[in-house]
Specification:
Blueprint: H1 2-9, H2 22-37, H3 44-48, H4 55-78
Length: about 110
Amino acid sequence: MLTAIHRVHATKGPWLTNGGYEYNLVLIAAALALVEAGPGALSLDGARGRERSGAGWALAALAVGALGAIGSYAAAAAQPTSVETGPEETEDQPAVVETEANHVED
């Protein structure tokens, strides 16, 4: 969601009605609240006695999310940029070449 906020929604302001990042922040806050609250007694982690929760785990989840966003930026930067070379012929649609025979004047 941090990547979506930065790449798509940041320039549109905070409000969702304008295409902003409000909803993305709500999703981040909800995920961090779930991590902070813990899985609960009915979870597999709770039954096994391996429940991990608290503010420290929420901060760790936030840090891992930020590292994931940084990783996505690094992966995008490592991709080669595409260069348009002009019309290309594909199986579905042959290339159109402008000639006097198919040129229509008004």
